[in-house]
Amino acid sequence: MSQIIYFDNNATTKVADEVVDAMLPFFKDLYGNPSSMHTFGGQVEKHIRHSRESLAALLGCDSSEIIFTSGGTESDNAAIKGVLAAYPEKKKIVTTRVEHPAVLATCRELQAAGFSLVELGVDKYGQINLDELAAEVDEHTAIVSIMYANNETGVIFPIDKIAEIVKSKGAIFHTDAVQAVGKIPLNLDKSSIDLLSLSGHKLHAPKGIGALYIKKGTRILPFIVGGHQEKNRRAGTENVPAIAGLGKAGEIASKEIRNENTKVKKLRDKLETAILKTCKDAMLNGDKINRLPNTTNISFEFIEGEAILLLLNQFGICASSGSACTSGSLEPSHVMRAMGVPFTAAHGSIRFSLSRYNTEAEVDFVAEKLPAIVNRLRELSPFVK
Amino acid sequence: MWDYNEKVMEYFLHPVNAGEIENPDGIGEEGSLACGDALKLTFKLGKDGRIADAKFKTFGCASAIASASIMTEMIKGLTIEQAEKVTNKDIVDKLGGLPEQKMHCSVMGMEALQKAIANYHGSKGKQTKKIEGKIVCTCFGVTDKEIEKVVLENSLDTVEQVTNYCKAGGGCGSCRGEIEQIIEKVRGKKTKQPESLSHPKKLTNIQKIELIQHTINEQIRPLLKSHGGDVELVDVEGSKVIVAFRGMCSHCRTAEFTLKDVVEARLKEFVSTDIIVEEQNIG
Question: Among B125, B129, B165, which residue's Cα sits nearest to residue B147?
Answer without folding.
Answer: B165
